[in-house]
From TrEMBL:
GO terms for molecular function: 4 iron, 4 sulfur cluster binding; catalytic activity; cobalamin binding; metal ion binding. TPR repeats lie at residues 481-514. Residues 1-142 form the B12-binding domain. SMART domains: Elp3 (SM00729). One of its GO terms (cellular component) is cytosol. CDD domains: Radical_SAM (cd01335), radical_SAM_B12_BD (cd02068). Its cofactor is [4Fe-4S] cluster. SUPFAM superfamilies: Cobalamin (vitamin B12)-binding domain, Radical SAM enzymes, TPR-like. Residues 177-395 form the Radical SAM core domain. It comes from Thermodesulfatator indicus (strain DSM 15286 / JCM 11887 / CIR29812). This is Radical SAM domain protein. Keywords: Iron, Iron-sulfur, Metal-binding, S-adenosyl-L-methionine, TPR repeat.
Length: 577
């Protein structure tokens, strides 16, 4: 039995695809469960597919016995389009939808789209495995209706078999890292809170289940041994269980996992001890849903239930321990005004986030916001027959307009950019010697982000001078390799070659075999016309493609044409290889 799992493309193009590119972790769990039962499984990441003829050829070539799609609301139409293509090619192959987007619209999907045969509603591993086994055994429709958690058609009518319930012990699931490699990991399922814009409360019923620290550590170690050293921890609230978080962090250190990672938390679910261990274990960034500076919007309208004091404390702890605190703000909410946006700006200035993402309030199925919208607008799920990803709240509120809401967003972004230098200059890292290398790494990464990362694209004043200060501050804590390199490049770009040579010379005293530092130093000497000195730094790396062209240029300048030709020929050979 061959099962094909597909992650469909999204309806709207994205200028940056980092939030939709990774496969949902749930697909890896599904595939692991099937593999453990000896089913053949293949996963296709078609998040950016733009050619349905390619999908048609793939279905014709693979000829799977079952095709299942992982559905969010935003890729719902991608799944529908692909399901139609699949049915044209393989009319007898069952098509299954699952995931959050399918769960909330199971009846709608089965009513309007005959190419969809089954919808897995809720947590999918047990239901999907049972369905796969039933289809493999050519079970009757009546037998299939005994499988809980399924939407299907029975005698021409859509039918739900009843809730499947949750898997009590999620450690009983096979570890997907035994079979697959991935960076987006998860150590728990669910969230106990009830924010109106989020589908989690209804999907997970505000119940949280945890993998044991041992299970999660085994997953990280398996992936690390395959060469993966950076992870996104996707738990809704990673720090919910303090004892477990510290066990995980201690385990990372004891196992010698030289990894870095990011996590998501709530501002009222962490303390200084948690932050300390997370930083020691390689955590670089924690994202917090701040949502709004208006307490009324944050806690009464959005039902976030967090205090200003908790927000300030969480951001202060992260800044002190060298973990980058990212703030999520939502704007265009009910009752949004210049005054509430100013409250968000004022809060931003107080907490001094070092990264910020702002989102317009969206309405999605499965949320309390969506239930309210249906009542207010007198609509039902057929609203999703429109070829849309989502509905912006402001589109349903006569007191808001698109231009007004966009202006709110501009004000938030402009305030962040304008104040960012102060957010950086007021950093006061805690004085604990064992954290000095981590502090240097934190400051260096922040500087690099200003020059090459997401902050480089923002309108932040004097980014290069701010980066220079951060690199210099980093070196006061620890001789960080990238801080030396960053400063060397900054001075080089200012054509202050002597200063660049000086700082790179210091760096090379700590990292004499660093190709990056040596090449950067060689460029300085080439700019000053000292090609023999430049070659001293290049020759140890003469087999590197990045070095060969510079070596050839040096020999050309020195009039040694045979050697110039030798290295150009080697470079050309490497390109062909």
């Amino acid at each position: 039995m061959k099962v094909l799992l597909v992650y469909p493309y999204f309806l709207n193009p994205r200028p940056k695809d980092y939030d939709v590119r990774p496969l949902p972790i749930g697909l890896y769990y599904l595939a692991a469960v099937l593999k453990q039962e000896n089913f053949q499984v293949e996963i296709l990441n078609w998040y950016n597919l733009n050619d349905l003829s390619l999908a048609k050829k793939t279905f014709e070539t693979l000829r799977p016995d079952i095709i299942a799609f992982s559905i969010f609301n935003a890729n719902r139409w991608g799944g529908i389009d692909l399901a139609k293509v699949a049915k044209e090619v393989l009319p007898d192959t069952p098509i299954i939808f699952g995931g959050v987007g399918a769960t909330y619209l199971w009846e709608h999907l089965l009513t309007h789209f005959p190419e969809i045969d089954y919808v897995v509603v809720g947590e999918g591993e047990k239901t999907f495995l049972d369905l796969t086994k039933a289809l493999a055994a050519k079970a009757s429709s009546k037998e299939i209706t005994r499988i809980k958690g399924l939407g299907l058609r029975l005698d021409g009518q859509v039918y739900f078999t009843g809730e499947a319930g949750f898997i009590d012990d999620i450690d009983s699931l096979p570890n997907p890292a035994k079979f697959f490699s991935f960076q987006h990991v998860i150590s728990s399922r669910g969230c106990p809170w009830n924010c109106v814009f989020c589908g989690s409360p209804r999907f997970w019923k505000r119940k949280v289940r945890f993998h044991s620290a041992e299970y999660f550590l085994e997953q990280l170690e398996r992936l690390y041994r395959r060469g993966i050293n950076f992870f996104y921890v996707s738990d809704d609230t990673f720090t919910l269980d303090k004892e477990r978080v510290i066990k995980i962090c201690e385990g990372i250190l004891k196992r010698g996992l030289n990894i870095t990672w990011q996590a998501i938390s709530r501002v009222d679910c962490l303390d200084e001890e948690i932050i300390y261990w997370m930083r020691r274990a390689g955590c670089l960034q924690i994202s917090f849903g701040v949502e709004s500076g208006s307490e009324k919007i944050r806690n009464k309208i959005l039902n976030k239930k967090i205090s200003k004091e908790s927000i300030k404390k969480a951001f202060s702890l992260c800044r002190a321990y060298g973990i980058l605190p990212r703030a999520y703000f939502i704007y265009g909410c009910p009752g949004e005004s210049k005054k509430t946006i100013q409250a968000s700006i004022d809060l931003m200035k107080e907490i001094k986030p070092l990264s910020m993402l702002c989102y317009i309030l969206d309405i999605y199925p499965g949320t309390a916001l969506y239930d309210d919208f249906k009542k207010r607008a007198g609509v039902n799920d057929d609203i999703w027959l429109k070829r849309i990803e989502d509905i912006m709240y402001y589109e349903t509120d006569p007191n808001l307009s698109a231009e007004r809401v966009k202006n709110f967003g501009r004000k938030l972004h402009q305030a962040f950019d304008k104040n960012f230098p102060r957010f950086v200059e007021t950093l006061n890292l805690i004085d604990r010697e064992e954290l000095y290398p981590h502090h240097a790494d934190f400051l260096t990464r922040l500087a690099m982000t200003l020059r090459y990362g997401e902050l480089a694209e923002r309108d932040i004043p004097e980014k290069d001078y701010l980066a220079e200060k951060l690199f210099l501050k980093a070196l006061r804590y620890h001789p960080d390799h990238h801080a030396f390199l960053g400063l060397g490049i900054i001075y080089q770009q200012r054509r202050d070659f002597e200063k660049s040579i000086e700082i790179l010379h210091k760096g090379l005293s700590f990292y004499p075999k660093s190709e990056q530092l040596n090449v950067c130093q060689a460029v300085n000497y080439m700019q000053l016309g000292d090609f023999k000195k430049a070659l001293e730094h290049l020759l140890p790396f003469e087999n590197s493609p990045d070095v060969l062209a510079r070596m050839a240029a040096c020999y050309q300048a020195l009039g040694d044409i045979p050697r110039m030709q030798k290295y150009l020929a080697r470079l050309e050979s490497l390109k062909k290889a």
